[in-house]
Amino acid sequence: MNEDFPQSPDVIRDESELEACLTQPRPELVDFIRSVSSPLLILGAGGKMGPTLAVLAKRAAQRAGHPLEVVAVSRFSDEPSRQWLEFHGVSTVNADLLSRDAVQKLPDAGDVIYLVGLKFGTGDNPSLTWAVNTLAPAHVAERYAQSRWVALSTGNVYPFVSVRSGGAREAHALTPLGEYANAAVARERIFEYFGRKNGTSIALLRLSYAVEMRYGVLVDIARKVHAGEVIDVTSGYFNCVWQGDANEMILRALPLASNPPAAFNLTGPSVLSVRAIAAKFSELLNRPVTFVGRETDTALLSNTECLCEKINPPVTSLDTVLRWTAYWVKSGGRFLNKPTHFEVRDGKY
Ligand SMILES: NC(=O)c1ccc[n+]([C@@H]2O[C@H](COP(=O)([O-])OP(=O)(O)OC[C@H]3O[C@@H](n4cnc5c(N)ncnc54)[C@H](OP(=O)(O)O)[C@@H]3O)[C@@H](O)[C@H]2O)c1
Fold it and tell me: Is residue 123 part of a domain?
């Protein structure tokens, strides 16, 4: 990985440039990381965000001269992710957090980031979604009752709100539609319950759509435009945030951990229109675009002002991410093929 890769290059040509870009710490993070205690434990680190989050923390610590061990815990269903983490100096531990025994054997840690979740496949096996989103938090919240926590949640905990509202704020009622979203509410409530019971300091981050080149709502739209597919604008609005910014904000949210636990929305600052984004990709990809449907005046949207007042807002501009995405799609970059299904309106995933 190129240590001096620019934070905001003109284009991202391949996965090694993408990984370098996502794991390049900004000076604010390098300063901050000195306050993180070793080891930093990242639970559920084998998914879409965990590997680059863990390596970002490790690189920030190396730059700061801070001897921080970063320990990534997951089942590592994707073995190459585990190898990639080890290669970049992150220790890995294979563990299934549904097993209380396995959780007991994990190393002690003062600072914990929790990324475990299950969304897709809920329609076929809702019981697994509920187990992963409730039992695993219960096991780890008890095991790390004395630690400082950032636990990931999702903007899906809110119901649809009026597009004109600018997005749900943190005090909005958590009354979403569908089993996944309700299991995500339960994930928060389990952390809150154990937090209150044991006096644990926890910040819950309700993330809406991290994006990078290999997955995310922007890539989903760009690929459709590139393939000449009709764009349905019924679910016409969304928020998203560059994954490098989201990862930095997750780490820097550790001092926001409190008791009782508090929740913060994490996403980009603007409400984005599917129609406008598809039109922009049509221009960047030099492909015509056709639309179907009419925008509904409600959408799954979050207002992130509260978090942005406490930590600086995401720094990567939308124009930059659109340019990177168009280049990636045009040049045949690799995709995870994990569509976001951002168009879903009935809560079924
Ligand atoms: N990415 C987004 O755009 C987005 C948007 C909204 C909210 N979020 C939230 O942010 C969190 C992180 O996002 P992500 O995209 O990285 O999620 P992800 O790709 O689903 O990664 C979570 C990882 O947790 C691990 N895991 C699941 N069950 C486990 C278990 N029983 N024991 C140990 N590990 C387990 C899985 O890896 P293994 O198979 O290796 O165990 C999984 O890949 C998620 O919890 C999600 O709710 C993400």
Answer: yes
